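Quick one - inputs below.
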Amino acid sequence: MLSYTEENYLKALLKITFDNRSEEVGTNELANVLVVKPATVNDMLKKLKEKELVEYKKYGKITLTANGRKNAIEVLRKHRLWETFLYEKFEFTWDEVHEVAEQLEHIQSGKLIDKLDKFLDYPQFDPHGDPIPNKKGEIKVNFKKTLSDVEVGNSCRMVAVKDNSSSFLQYVVKVGLGINNEIKVLSKQEYDALLVIEVNGVKSSVSQKFAENIFVVCQNCIIGKTCSKTKCEIEK
Amino acid sequence: MLSYTEENYLKALLKITFDNRSEEVGTNELANVLVVKPATVNDMLKKLKEKELVEYKKYGKITLTANGRKNAIEVLRKHRLWETFLYEKFEFTWDEVHEVAEQLEHIQSGKLIDKLDKFLDYPQFDPHGDPIPNKKGEIKVNFKKTLSDVEVGNSCRMVAVKDNSSSFLQYVVKVGLGINNEIKVLSKQEYDALLVIEVNGVKSSVSQKFAENIFVVCQNCIIGKTCSKTKCEIEK
DNA sequence: TAATAAAGTTAGGCTAATCTAACATAAAAA
DNA sequence: TTTTTATGTTAGATTAGCCTAACTTTATTA
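Output:
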């Protein structure tokens, strides 16, 4: 049985491997995500290594073992199912679900998760557009383009967000954006990559940083053409 | 903010005051309920006293302060709402709900509990027949008779159980008992108080210990007569 | 390639929650 | 009322998860 804290470490490792599109994670990076000091991570790594949940060598990179990954995916599954539950059944907003799901994801009961999954009719995506792992632990990893990758003049469809913080999500709502919205990129500032976009006929300016946190599928991919930049979706 | 452990101490104190029908709790008693050593309880009492959640003096009895009681009732409310949820919405059985509710009761989210309460249509009793405190913290405390108080030849109706352990509850089911069942006491052994009861036409023998854990309303109370022993229900 | 910066490690400490063993007090029984 | 038993307390230790400060190794850059 894993502790609440151990589960969070594994989940953070999994999240980083998804975000970085690499299996290798550094101590500082993990410390940042967990909002603890690198020294603390170092201590915990010894324990996780002992339990054969991660592999790492002194001054080397951290990787999840098969078992570590399995556990991490289980936590992720629970997190995303609870988010979906809160959003769909309890009228929680987009930006409220994360905080409570952070607590609920640690509840230990296989039956509870099975029933939750069934109750929600086996959802495939959570309210942020992220894929929910199935009971077998299979997860569709979509390496998606972000809004900042879309060429000027082109359109795209928003499919998910990268940043799940409530401050970011509230901003997204303010700009009039939501999942499945059509976004047209009208112009891009040379100097600071400031974008002017149009959503439902309304024009807004958004920063580079903002655009990097909006996952999209671009028009080319929608109509079946080859993408010039990052491919929109890769199944894994 | 209270820790998971502090919440459990307060909840246990509340439970004991209900069970004993007295506000005064001893260190050993509390240690037994929490399955920790008396020394541990002693340490924690210092902290709870510091936080003004309990009152106690060296070698004296422990009592909850108004604030301690308020917190304890909030945890109890969450516990019983979650039990009801699991039982009614997720097809958990009587004996399965407690363990998972022990975890869920610590989730911190006022909105979640409000929505849960609404979703269940503001239930008044949990699956074990225990009253659910309302949002204001009001709780109907029913000092009930147990099956062992019922006179031979009389009938009664089961309203709740005292022991919520899954082993006890499974045994209750095995005997054919459930909430609102009519029970007739056919005979009582002088020597060991072994009872022969009849439920839905089926006769069973049950021990003294078993009978003490079944709360009932007796026939006299049902038809409005005065009870010879403990009064069946007292509102508080 | 040598100096500097970034990343990672170690040692020693802290707090919360637990324990055991020894001791103190209060209650019950003889 | 004295002894015994039950109950409660204290001291000292342990574990998990965290910290700071000092140090080491690896990576970057001048």
